[in-house]
Write the C-alpha cells for this entry.
Amino acid sequence: MEYTIEFCVGCYLPNAMDFANALLEKHAHDASFALKLVPGDSGQFDVKRDKEMIYSKRETKRLPVPGEIESGLRSFAGIESESASVKSCC
C-alpha cells in the first residue's frame, strides 16, 4: 500500500507532516506500506492510496480532519472541520 500526499508547501507543509506522521504510526509494522510527500500546486492538498485519489481539498473545499484520509472516503460534505480555521495562503 502506497500513500502519496501532494500539497502546497507554502500553505500546508505542517498539515502534510501531521498526516504523514499519523499514517506512519498507523502502518509502522506493515512491510508493504510506503509514503511519498510531493510538493504540489498552490492551494493543493491531495491524498492518493495506490494511485487512487482518496482526498482532494479542491473537491471538499477544506482540509481533512483526522480519520478521513485513513478511511479512504472521497466525499465529506456536511462535516465540520477543525482544519477549516487553518489560515491558507491560497
Observations:
- Residues 4 and 36 are 5 Å apart (CA to CA).
- Helices lie at 9-26, 57-60, 68-71.
- The two ends are 30 Å apart (CA to CA).
